[in-house]
Amino acid sequence: MRQATFVFVFDTADDAKIVVGSLSPEIRHKIPKTEVVLSRTQKRLSLTIQSADLSSLRAACNSYLRWIHTALKVKRLV
Q1: Tell me, what's the pLDDT at 29?
Q2: Per the structure, how many domains does the chain have?
Q3: What are the per-10-residue average pLDDT scores of the chain (78 residues)?
Q4: How far is residue 57's CA from residue 50's CA, in Å, rounded to a whole number?
Q5: Which of these, 19, 31, 32, 33, lies nearest to 67 by C-alpha position?
Q6: What is the pLDDT, as a whole number, of residue 19?
Q7: How many C-beta atoms surround the C-beta of residue 51 within 10 A?
Q8: Closest CA to 22 of 60, 66, 77
Q9: Owning domain of residue 10
Q10: Which residues lie below 8 Å from residue 14, measured CB to CB, with a gap of 6+?
Q11: Helix axes 54-77 and 13-28, enclosed angle (nearest 10)
């Protein structure tokens, strides 16, 4: 089993909450061959992705990091 963990510390707890809210639909629609755990405490967000193979892990990491980046860009524009 391969695993990657990302920890993000946001400026505010609201920023972290917005990102978690935007990722919730993606977590419900699972990426094949991966398991994702997302947790938030105040301004800190922890994302752990597990996969049986490296290529699936890389694809899931790329997807989640891009979704987080997009959520933050949209928040800045609004």
Answers
A1: 84
A2: 1
A3: 96 92 86 91 96 94 94 87
A4: 7
A5: 19
A6: 93
A7: 22
A8: 66
A9: 2-77
A10: none
A11: 130
Read out DSSP for the chain?
-EEEEEEEE-SSHHHHHHHHHHHHHHHHSPPTTEEEEEEEETTEEEEEEEESSHHHHHHHHHHHHHHHHHHHHHHHH-
**Is the pTM here over 0.85, yes or no?**
yes
Structure-block tokens of residue 5: 């963990």
Give me the amino acid identity at 63: S
CA 62 – CA 15 distance, rounded (Å): 21
pLDDT in the model for residue 31: 81
In this structure, what CATH number is given to the domain that contains residue 47?
A: 3.30.310.50
Chain-centre distance of CA 33, in angstroms? 16
